[in-house]
Amino acid sequence: MSVGSKTAKERRGRQVGFFTANELNVTYLQILNSPAGFASLLSGQYDIVTATIDNAVNYRFNLQNVSVLGQLDQGPDPVVASVPAITSIRDRGSRSCLYGLVLGTNYCFDTEGATALRYQYLVNGSIPSGTPAYATILTYPFTAEGLALPPSSHPNVLARASNCVNPFSSTTFTATTASTMDATKGPLLTQFLTAMLEANQYLVDPKKKACAIDAIAVQLNASTLVAIAEYAAATDVETGEKALMQGGVFHVSGQGLLNVIDVRSQFGGFSGAPAGFDFADAIVPGQGKLID
Question: What's the pTM value of the predicted model, to 2 decimals?
Answer without folding.
Answer: 0.76
